[in-house]
Specification:
The protein has about 375 residues and is of the alpha+beta class. It has three domains: about 80 residues, conserved putative lor/sdh protein from methanococcus maripaludis s2 fold (Beta Barrel); about 90 residues, Elongation Factor Tu (Ef-tu), domain 3; about 150 residues, OB fold (Dihydrolipoamide Acetyltransferase, E2P) (Beta Barrel). Helices cover about 25% and strands about 40% of the residues. It is built from four helices and 20 strands. Strands 2-11-14-13-12-15 form a six-stranded antiparallel β-barrel. Strands 3-10-8-5 form a four-stranded antiparallel sheet, with no helix packed on it. The chain has a four-stranded antiparallel sheet with strand order 7-6-4-9. Helix 2 runs antiparallel to helix 3. The model has no long low-confidence stretch (mean pLDDT about 85).
Length: about 375
């Protein structure tokens, strides 16, 4: 019985050993490799680049007050259209104390000068009526009186403007009324009733009461890398896609390339601007992020294959041309333009040739 068990154990060990050898033998045999086959066809190939940027109005202005004051009333809000010279807000004047004091002093001095000029004129008029002074002397005194009256009126008007923001002689041109300088859409009104505002001067930019833009004249503003800017030219057509608007594209024309580069994330880039053609029934908002596709170069109806069929050796490029059933011959080719997927074959292949592509399966 023990002898039978021993024979069975030896038999099992032998089977395991033979099975292992058989498995290793099968694994060591070369496997048949199958490849995807690609056909050379005629196609149009375009070399393109995509530039990121945004859609902005060509003409966007900040409307600022002519005087310092407090917002008393707002007549418009963001999203409304406004005409040139239309009133957006009304101010309550906060006069500058130094300017107010100087204007009051000027008025008092003008009153004194006018009083003295009137006295001189009355005296001179009496003498002139008695023919005791010449006409020339009388005319000079009369001119001094008229100048004193004019200075009095100017001083009074200056005080009214500083104190009230408007003069009695020019009520329609009140500086307390903030008017739009262009016709367009109000993009933003960053102030509220009660906010203090200041006029622009050499010391500060002033307070923006409203931002107005002509939204019918938009441009694409972006930056292109220095390696590609040399391939661009003014007048080049572009296709603009906006991330916020699905399945919608705009035509544009490149109209500006900056002559000076700016450094952005360690690379030199050039600003470009393109005029965007907006359909009348489409609402485009200022500041939309957008991508611009530009065709840098193109060839038409050339022999091409997928780039995956190429094999590189040194400075030479090859393909494996099919010569029979699962038979391929290494063939030298000359390549041209590529769009990243397909590549132009200038020499070495003709339309209809079949070449070996990527490996798809092993048997």
């Amino acid at each position: 019985m023990k002898r039978i068990v021993k024979y069975i154990i030896f038999a099992l060990i032998g089977i395991v050993i033979l099975g292992t050898f058989a498995f290793l033998f099968v694994k060591s045999q070369p496997k048949e490799v199958l490849y995807k086959e690609l056909t050379a066809t005629r196609a149009d190939i375009r070399k393109t680049t995509v530039i990121t940027g945004k859609i902005v109005p060509r003409n966007e202005v900040n409307v600022k007050p002519q005087i310092n004051g407090i917002i008393a009333e707002l007549y418009k809000q963001a999203g409304e259209t406004v005409q040139q010279n239309e009133v957006i807000a009304k101010l309550k004047v906060i006069p500058d104390m130094n300017s107010l004091s100087a204007a009051q002093s000027r008025l008092r001095l003008a009153e004194l000068n006018l009083k003295q000029a009137q006295t001189n004129y009355d005296r001179e008029k009496s003498l002139y009526d008695k023919q005791l002074v010449s006409s020339e002397e009388y005319d000079q005194i009369l001119q001094q009186l008229n100048q004193a009256k004019e200075e009095m009126a100017a001083a009074k008007e200056s005080l009214e403007v500083i104190r009230d923001g408007v003069s009695s002689s020019n009520a329609t041109g009140s500086s307390t009324l903030v008017r739009s300088t262009i016709t367009g859409l109000i993009l933003d009104i960053p102030v509220k009733v009660g906010n203090s505002v200041i006029q622009a001067n050499t010391m500060n930019d002033g307070t923006t009461v409203a931002t107005v833009a002509n939204m019918s004249d938009l441009i694409f503003d972006g930056n292109v890398d220095e390696t590609e800017v040399g391939l661009l030219a003014e007048g080049t057509p572009m296709i603009i896609t906006i991330g916020a608007l699905q399945n919608f594209a705009l035509d544009a024309t490149l109209e500006y390339i900056s002559p000076k580069a700016v450094e952005n994330n360690g690379t030199n880039q050039f600003e470009i601007k393109a005029a965007v053609k907006v359909p009348g029934d489409k609402v485009i908002r200022s500041g939309y992020s957008a991508n611009a596709e530009i065709v840098l170069d193109a060839v038409e109806k050339v022999v091409s294959v997928q780039e995956s069929a190429l094999d590189f050796s040194g400075d030479s490029t090859f393909v494996y041309l099919k010569t029979g059933e699962k038979q391929y011959e290494k063939t030298l080719v000359q390549t041209g333009m590529s769009d990243g997927v397909n590549i132009e074959i200038k020499e070495g292949l003709k339309e209809g040739d079949v070449v070996r592509g990527t490996k798809i399966v092993e048997k």
